[in-house]
Amino acid sequence: MTITDAVTTGLGDRWREGARPQTTDEWLARAQEVADILAVDAVERDRANQTPHAEVQLLKDSGLVTLLGPRAHGGAGETWDTAYRVIRTVARGDGSIGQVLGYHYLWAWAARLVGTEEQIAAVEELYTSNALVFGGAVNPRDSDLVIREDGDDLVFSGRKSFSTGGQISDLTVLEGVLEGSDTHIFAIVPTAQDGIVFADDWDSLGQRLTESGSVEIRDVRVPWAAAAGFVDRVFRPLTYNTLNVPTIQLVFANFYLGIAQGALETASAYTRTRTRPWPYGGDDKQHATDEWYLLEGYGELASTLWADEALLDAVGGEISAVLHAPREELTPRRRGEIAVRVAAGKLRVVDDGLTVATKVYELTGARASASSVGLDIFWRNLRTHSLHDPIAYKKREVGTFVLKNEVPEPTWYT
User: Fold this and answer.
1) Does the keyword Lipid biosynthesis apply (predicted)?
2) For domain 135-235, is the CATH number 2.40.110.10?
């Protein structure tokens, strides 16, 4: 079943009318259903490079967009360790849509990261009750949006060269600096308004369906009361506020792992059905699945990804525990220890994932390089997003912790 089939034949209706997942395992099974649908025509959709409206509708129909939302408003009430595994599962079917979902989870949690209790309650009711999808115009490498005061309003203006979610989002997270100060302010606004103008210029090697192009913010007005975390126009900082970066970095690592797992699954299916044994090695086999070098190769790649999965699951449990704990309890030291563990997981899966996405060609054979097979999508997707920030700095953070027992200071990338 393709995505078009799933949307037009009422699969969403069947999901809504049927038994709703109630346990973590059932939500993971729902994620696998979505991944299976995405995988059917992932290559064709990647080639077409169209705005993924149907894919996002699939995420909404499945209930996955409200996985972290409160049960009181129709959400699943699941925790971040489940969300990470859902992201990974969806990415096995389509890395782009795994990224879209992961970024949505991060921005849906933005109110909890920096907002007041009243803002958290309002945002979570709004997005959960209506199954709204978040995007974010927050790219630290660009100049900050400029915010000017106009009475009881804040007015955001500027440009961001990346804005994942773009035209497929219902809500957009804005971040800027108040004019004449060094005060950073986050706000959540409706995406569909004249002041948010997407350039539709995302043209990258991979992750092509993430709607990550540039955006112009033209005098977008936000009431001062909607400035996240501000009370009487004053922000009260907590260490918890800085968890946005390790949280999203682990989102990255999980959809990277999902992409690598997808590559291995696709390659192994090809080898079982289409790869021919090598007839010139002096140890002729009847079937490719009996070739010793293929058995060794798949064994090595699978064991590597199993180890990466174990590490990411462990780190996901650690960060999930603090994300769901009272915000005031998080210390700078604990935050830093988690950031180091996230860095270790990310650097491991980037190196291992790129190896897998390359080595599968050696295990499937020359004919698997045909464009129609589509093995290239995995390497292109992983290579593209793994350049988000230099992996060398992740290695340095881990090394500094090991040798000096020092944790990294919070930055926009750590």
Assistant:
1) no
2) yes
